[in-house]
């Protein structure tokens, strides 16, 4: 009888790739986890129980066929494992690095529910795709036949790029327009290098370009080109701009120098640390935490990126204020643990009320307690009267989330329908808007969300556009 390669979760304990020591990693922007060796990847994959109802797969927004590629990895069939992974996910090496697996696939692993510790799905996903790159298995689009139709995509983030890849592989002519000088969106300028090294993003961008995707960068829609011009140039248009408008925090002193937005801070850091760009605001110290007492306001993944970046920039101290407790914070618990290891202090149940100093010297804080659950089921924070204090700070970073920009006004397109939240109205699954041939995907539809959801939206939208093109082609042939 052949040896059973799987279901070894009882004999083999869960193991993660080696994590670099906090005292070493907190001074650079390199990724913090080492790579699995082949034997370790096979061993950890073999822990999968191959359950009949794979909750890991159903709780993945892309419904990745996780049990199958774990089985293929455990049995040494890495190229096949990569092909299965790539079949549902345009960027598996990126998702393997930055997805909050503890809230998605790994958080729903059946063997974890039985007390044996989850399969390290994200680390295996990263390993098999990095191995695929090393072995030349990752190939640019090479469509069997070119199509006459063209699609313009506004936004070079994960949603737009996922759609571009699928459309180009089907032979569609694809042009991506983006306001920045490098493609990738938040993958390039928002997420720090210690979570996602930038050569990982750049090689995907180069692969798309090698496959025939045209990039028009430094191109701001509404200024350098109009929305109507893009519509006129293409058979379909996908809006994939993401959401970049930072939520603000009002209160006394909120206009003081030294209070900055998370997106500005992270973009400056990524440009300077990862690309070597000259960034005047970073060089002047305005967007640089070196030697400063830093306070970050917020409890999501962006806040975690900010606190951990500030540590690496050489801040004197780094504190994170969040109005709920640890259990109720929206950010990844894994990221919180990494931040604590690196020296970040969390002040739970604290809410800022204002700021001291024309050049900020502190944050005026009220302590909170958790009361009754709100409409989402989370306990609503309540103020503890008389608990006010001032948290010393000379750099305050607001990481309160993002909202959509007013695209109808910016683009001179009042006919583009938006919701009361300012997100673009689009059909579920297809991304179709009220405008003929115009689609929308990712955060500009959902609001600020996860990269994996943007990839899902981009792929679904590309499928819908291809069906539309095929239907038109069939109708044209029938009419002849």
From TrEMBL:
Entries under InterPro entries matching the protein: DPD_II (IPR028261), FAD/NAD-bd_sf (IPR036188), FAD/NAD-binding_dom (IPR023753), GltD-like (IPR006006), Helical_ferredxn (IPR009051)
Stated name of the protein: Glutamate synthase (NADPH) small subunit
Key words, A-Z: 4Fe-4S, Iron, Iron-sulfur, Metal-binding, Oxidoreductase
Protein source organism: Marinovum algicola
Entry keyword Glycosyltransferase: no
Domain of life: Bacteria
Location of the FAD/NAD(P)-binding domain: 151-458
GO molecular function, one term: 4 iron, 4 sulfur cluster binding
Keyword Hydrolase attached: no
All copies of domain Dihydroprymidine dehydrogenase, residue ranges: 26-136
Alphabetical list of Pfam families matching this protein: Fer4_20 (PF14691), Pyr_redox_2 (PF07992)
